[in-house]
Amino acid sequence: MLHIQEAIVVEGRYDKNALSQVADTLILETGGFQIFKDPEKMALLDKAARRLGLIVLTDSDGAGFVIRNRIKGVIPAQFLKHAYIPDIYGKERRKRQPGKEGKLGVEGMPPAVLEDVLRRAGATFLEGDSLSKRSGPTLTKGDLFTAGLVGGPGSAGKRQRLLKRLELPEHMSANALLAVLNGCYSLEEADEILKNV
Question: How many angstroms separate the CA atoms of 111 and 113, rounded?
């Protein structure tokens, strides 16, 4: 498992699943072309980029480049790194037919290829002291429960107010909120956020 400083943005949940088997970091999804209609999601990407740095890892087809260019057009270049997967023709296991251009996407790449493209993109690998700082104690779903953000009366409303205050997408799940709190904030900052719910 690669421990990486930067957050990584991919197109969808299957890409995220494939990448999470290779990299231990905050992995965010664009939801495909949803990124064009969701300013909150773009604000989340910008926040992650400014806080951790952001590696853009989209498919190598035309749609992937459109999404990549949208992100490049909004987030300043000094916070971005670009990882490019190779053009490999075929289809992913879960699909009946290949994509429009016949190329495998991020989800279809072998782990060794994903590791290689992250290294070539200049990902910052954490080791030793920097790894222990990043992978120290993290918030759990229990912390969200204690703060009244999940599993209780009015928790959905509280979570919506917190998402709005943090300028995060309103449709973000509790698990996604937890990932952002652990990935974009120090434990002290995240604890403070939960205390002020």
Answer: 5
Q: Is residue 18 very low, low, confident or very high in pLDDT (cuts 50, 70, 90)?
A: very high
Residues 6 or more apart in contact with residue 110 via CB below 8 angstroms: none
Per-residue b or e along 114-146, where b marks 16 or more CB atoms closer than 10 Å to that residue's CB: beebbeebebeebeeeeeeebeeeebeeebbee
Give residue 172's pLDDT. Answer: 74
Given a contact cutoff of 8 angstroms between Cβ atoms, the answer to whether 42 and 170 are in contact is: no
Strand partners, 83: 57
* Backbone dihedral angles phi then psi of residue 23, each to the nearest 5 degrees: -120, 135
Number of H helices, E strands in the chain: 9, 6
The pLDDT-based confidence of 132 (bands split at 50, 70, 90) is: very low
DSSP assigned state of 82:
E
* H/E stretch holding 81: strand 80-84
The candidate with the shortest Cα–Cα distance to 103, out of 158, 48, 65, is: 65
> Is 122 within 8 Å of 81 (Cβ atoms)?
yes
pTM of the model as a whole = 0.78
